[in-house]
Amino acid sequence: MKKNDSYLEFLKQEYDVGKLFDKPEPLKGVRVLEVCYVVLGPAACDYLAEFGAEVIKFEGQKGDQMRFVTPYAFFWKNMSPGLEIENHNKYWVGMHMGHPKAKDIFLNLVKKADVVVDNLTPGRLATWGLSYKELREINPGIIQLHVSGYGSWGTWSGRASYDAVAQSMGALSPITGFEERGPIKSGVWIADWVTGLMCAVSIMAALNYRERTGEGQFIDYMQVENVIRMLDWTWMFTHKTGEDRKRSGNRDLAICPSDLFRCTDGWSAVAAFTEEEFKGLCLAMEKPALFEKFKDPTERLKEENARDILQAIEAWAGSKTVDQVEELGNRHGFAAARVLSAADVYHSEHFRERGTIQQYDDPLYGDMVQQCYPPRLSETPGKLKWSCRPLGFDNDYVFTKLLGMQGKDMRELEEEGIIFKWNPSIPSHCPPADWDGTSGKKLS
Question: Is 419 helix (H, G, I), strand (E, B) or coil?
Fold first, then answer.
């Protein structure tokens, strides 16, 4: 036991969040050009940026729609939380992408870039002369990812899609919810976030292939296909039985018992699938006969048996507190955990200690406390360096430091409306009212 404790202490030191910014970044040197709006495209780039990629985000005059998407119309120092969460560690450029001169600027950046990501209407970049064919002529090693609701080709290509639509079209919402009620969508934008994650994975795969072959490639990603891929055993079951998957509430149809149960003072999640786990649960419930009758896990999965078991657990849990159910789970070896609220997780010492929740001081927005992406790399961890930024906030850095433009050149482009910064009459485009004019700028 002491040896194990020593190893756990070693791991704790390896992942000390106090040393986070002393460690290198695994994607340092990878440059990504992002022409994305809303969530799933920006989320893909956010995953990369948190692990050190240099992501340059381009916005048009109206800005990303997420500048106006915020819970209960809540803004923090002009910043929308809807924009912030998928846009960390990026460089922000305001540019009229459809202008011929903007095309030349963008292609000059493509020469120096590794990846281009867009989630515009399929073919939009091509109308600006920025299709994958044009990009690879400039840079044969370029990787371009296009992500959209229904893909770049097919009967539905070009149709609008949002997270709720993708959950519905991918058959997730119809199987979510309780038997006697209608379909339910997830409480978070799960189709956007998981698709963004898999977009980042596909970019990493393409970067690995390019490292071995020198060849770039085009990646076409369909949001709804990603939802379909998430539906575990659904397709095999439907294919072989001809039956549609039904809604089952919180009950897991492939593991029994696994459900949420109301206690006297809250809710608990209880699961016990192996013979040993189920035996422990039955001992805690003081129902050894239940174990003898249903020790075979496949017997427990039969519809009538499953309902009997869940009904027995429901009655038992209803007489216990959440603390009592958790304690009995720990004592008897079955899984039991209280259902935590968002506030519970926010204040959890466990998640703070692990760095799941990272606190940092942003030069524009002050004290920020946010969740990080969960992979824990001991030597090259991901990190939050800064938050989202006002529209065009990093124009000077990108155009002068990366492209070598002079001040006169930039002023001409601004006068022609090709590049621009925030509109002072639109608060969510702008820096905080108390911004000092220099904090947060990346000029070196």
Answer: strand
